[in-house]
Amino acid sequence: MTIFSKIIAGEIPCYKVAENDRFFAFLDINPVNWGHTLVVPKKETDYLFDIDDEELGEMMIFTKKVAEAIKKAIPCRKVGMAVLGLEVPHAHIHLIPLQNEGDMDFAKKISNPSPEKMMEIAQSIAKFY
Fold first, then answer.
1. Average pLDDT, stretch 61-66?
2. Buried b / exposed e across 95-128, counting CB within 10 Å, b at 16+?
3. What distance in Å separates the CA atoms of residue 76 and residue 128, rounded to the nearest whole number?
4. Please, which residues bridge with residue 38 across strands?
5. Active-site annotation holds for 36
6. Nearest one of 36, 29, 117 to 76, comparing CA atoms
7. Considering the entire predicted model, what is its pTM?
8. Dihedrals phi, psi of 40, to nearest 5 degrees
9. Span 26-55, pLDDT tens digits
10. Which of 21, 36, 39, 125 has a CA that sits 20 to 30 A from residue 73's CA?
11. Options 36, 90, 92, 94, the catalytic residue
């Protein structure tokens, strides 16, 4: 069971922003920008492109809705999307509010984000989902 599956199961706390029967979205605890959100399928699959076409299409629609909620909740020009997925063997998409392309720099993370601010951001995004 991956750490993401444990988060989905409620075994590990998270800052949830959206959920449906197949997908789950929550704030990254090591954000590169405020509002940095991870979208994951509830079914464990290591590699995004191993997900069958129908489910991948549904995941992108869910991801789009989450991105639209992020854009309403966080002042930004656009919401960037990245697929990296080497550190956790569970497919996931990063959604990051952007003012400029430098905001997608994964080497620059927000150090020690306060739980209160993270909760406020998660609730703000969730209300627009």
1. 98
2. bbbbeeeebbeeeeeeeebeeeebeebbebbbeb
3. 15
4. 26, 94
5. no
6. 36
7. 0.95
8. -135, 150
9. 999 999 999 999 999 999 999 999 999 999
10. 21
11. 92
